[in-house]
Design brief:
CATH topology of the largest domain: Peroxidase, domain 1
CATH architecture of the largest domain: Orthogonal Bundle
Order of helices and strands: EHHHHHEHHEHEHHHH
Shape: globular
Bound molecules: protoporphyrin IX containing FE, 2-acetamido-2-deoxy-beta-D-glucopyranose
Structural class: mainly alpha
Strand order of the largest sheet: 1-2
Number of domains: 2
Helix content: 40-55%
Length: 325
């Protein structure tokens, strides 16, 4: 599947996201939120995001993962973007290394140039994640806005909020359930593991001392080469080893689950309960239905514990609160 390079080439998914919105806390968010306050906001994010991914095709995955980590910890309030400071000595970002912070700042700067002080970093991240699906996945959909930026970020909030790669399906369902997301959402969103990169440190637990029998033998052999025992955990491997382009967001992930060609226990375990195995099969068989589910679930995720109205603030820069903390 070739990368879609413009909105014109991307499949436009409608209605489904609206349906998801009605059933979640994101009801307080609004489609086209910046219609009157900054009509070019979403266009400015899209332009900047497209430019970044054109320059480095791995960046779509970075934006989508940042959005996931933002939303699962303290809600989608851009707390993941705050740098260390006197009032935030141990921000979230110190807990788990993520990519794309500078790129998000670049997108925010592009939006500030159009409408200073109007568009939140939390919304910038939500729009950038949506636009990453457009560029890297070839489908697009409406993402509501109106999130406000939080004032705090605490590393300790990560624990118990972000699921781990060795979790089993029931634990994952519990983790997503705690955020108001269903098993269907879990399975649909896990498709994000069709693109991007992973560090060897997350893979070696399934290789040593003995290869996990649920891991495809061919893939295990290539991973042993890429991530030798005792080697640097910081080496990166592609999330999706079964297709030629690891930068494409697609339902290939669900086909890989059938052949054991996924990196984490938290991926493979989705085939171990009858209900989620059925969802995996459906997503493998029908790419457009998966896109619709992914879009709906990303909108739903984007509504987790959001700050709205006069809560929080609209940050000037994404790495610091306006009081400079
Ligand atoms: C179901 C529970 C999940 C677990 C246990 C999990 C775990 C992980 C881990 C361990 C990595 C590798 C990180 C690294 O080596 O730097 C990763 C990468 C990634 N995850 Fe997840 N994840 C989960 C759900 C999600 C969701 C819901 C999304 C987004 C919708 C997502 C998007 C990504 C992306 C795009 C990458 C690649 C990032 C990059 O290229 O830098 N993940 N995930
Ligand atoms: C976005 O890019 C298009 C095409 O290059 C350009 O015409 C438009 O002015 C840009 N919009 C913003 C808000 O930067
Ligand atoms: C493992 O992956 C290879 C390469 O894609 C594939 O040919 C093989 O059928 C897979 N093995 C199993 C048991 O699914």
């Amino acid at each position: 599947m070739a990368m879609a390079t413009s909105a014109g080439q991307a499949l436009l998914l409608m209605a489904l996201a609206t349906a998801a919105l009605k059933s979640t806390a994101s009801g307080t968010l609004q489609y086209d939120f910046y219609r009157s306050s900054c009509p070019k906001a979403e266009e400015a994010v899209r332009n900047a995001t497209m430019k970044i991914i054109a320059g480095n095709p791995t960046m779509g995955a970075a934006f989508v993962r940042l959005f996931f980590h933002d939303c699962f910890v303290r809600g989608c309030d851009a707390s993941i973007l705050l740098d260390q400071s006197n009032s935030n000595p141990q921000p979230e970002k110190l807990a788990i290394p993520l990519r794309g912070y500078d790129a998000v700042n670049t997108i925010k700067a592009a939006v500030e140039a159009v409408c200073p002080g109007v568009v939140s970093c939390a919304d910038v991240l939500a729009f950038a994640a949506r636009d990453s699906a457009m560029v890297s996945g070839g489908f697009t959909f409406a993402m509501p806005g109106g999130r406000r930026d939080g004032l705090a970020s605490d590393l300790n909030d990560i624990f118990g909020s972000i699921p781990g790669p060795s979790m089993q399906v029931q634990q994952l369902i519990g983790s997503f359930g705690a955020k108001g997301l269903s098993a269907d959402d879990l399975v649909a969103l896990s498709g994000a593991h069709s693109f991007g990169i992973t560090h060897c440190s997350f893979v070696t637990p399934r290789l040593y001392p003995a290869a996990d029998p649920t891991l495809n033998g061919t893939l295990a052999a290539s991973l042993v080469k890429a991530c030798p025992r005792g080697g640097p955990g910081s080496t990166v491997v592609n999330n999706n080893n079964a297709v030629t382009d690891p930068n494409v967001l697609s339902n290939q992930y669900y086909k890989n689950l059938a052949t054991g060609e996924v990196l984490f226990t938290s991926d493979q375990t989705l085939t171990s309960s009858a209900a989620t195995a059925k969802m995996v099969q459906d997503n493998a068989a029908n790419p457009v239905a998966w896109m619709a589910r992914f879009a709906g679930a990303l909108v739903k995720m984007g509504g987790i514990e959001v700050l709205t109205g006069t809560q929080g603030e609209i940050r000037k820069v994404c790495g610091a609160t306006n009081s400079g903390s």
